[in-house]
Amino acid sequence: MILSFQQYILKDIFLRSEKMLFLNIKDRVNKYFENKNQFAKAIGVGFPAACKLYEGETSRIAFDTLESLCRELHCSPNDLFISDNPEIMNYIKGDTE
Description:
Elements: H1 5-18, E1 21-23, H2 26-32, H3 36-43, H4 47-55, H5 63-73, H6 77-80, E2 81-83, H7 86-93
Antiparallel strand pairs: 1-2
Helix pairs in contact: 3-4
């Protein structure tokens, strides 16, 4: 099945709207690395995968990759994620009872 450009865009918007948790690492990557290639090598993934992580376009992440991100970006997993769901964001921030 071939999608028109408009169908492709609508599908992309729909898929993005279904996500509730996003990687938010651009600022940290820019702080610690000169370019995405250095970032990819440091965390042990290929350049295309690093670009997807950087752009927040990944829907899953392996624990070893998450561990590498935390080590190389000097942070905890909570620092790497954001959510469009306020309740989830409260958990990420640690604002729970």
